[in-house]
Amino acid sequence: MSGYNEDAYKQARESAIGLACPFERALLSRCVVCFKARRLLLAEREAISCTEQAACDRCQAFHQALHRNARFALHMDPDTPWPFGKEIRAQCGGVLGLQAMLGRENPEPADVAALLAEAIERYGEIGHFPYSEIMRGVVHYEPRRRR
Fold it and tell me: Is 49 within a domain?
């Protein structure tokens, strides 16, 4: 039996993270970066926190829009929870799709907060993004394979 108390870890995590990052899994998998993110180490685990409320709100709205649009693209039932692999595809593929939609083909990982700010400047609000183009990134994104 493990010596870890998972409930105590969850309480410590909630108290340490002021603003939970909706793209935490993508940041931890290193397919994207964010200059607003702060890395924390808790009980030998890594966690991500956001440093700015406005950026967190924008990311949360984009994350929700990705989930709404990606359910069809990833052949998911609306009532089922998101499995890890499809969540990674939605997060990483969504940000990379946004990057491609903006015409920024950089070999370096995309910066979530900077891309969202640029896209909002271009399209006005998150609901007006061309999600049909962004979903191409979600569908074509392949998470890295286990070793």
Answer: yes
Print the domain residue range for 91. Answer: 6-140
How far apart CA 81 and CA 16 sit, in angstroms, is: 26
At 49 the three-state DSSP class reads strand
What's the sign of the alpha-carbon dihedral 109, 110, 113, 118?
A: positive
Altogether, the residues listed in the chain come to a count of 147
Nearest-Å Rg of the Cα atoms of the chain is 16
What does pTM read for this prediction? 0.87
Does residue 145 form part of some domain?
A: no
- Residue 66: is it exposed, middle or buried by C-beta count within 10 angstroms (0-12/13-18/19+)? buried
pLDDT level of residue 93 (50, 70, 90 thresholds): very high
Which element (helix H / strand E) includes 26?
A: helix 24-28
Domain count, the chain: 1
**Phi, psi at 5, each rounded to 5°:** -105, 100
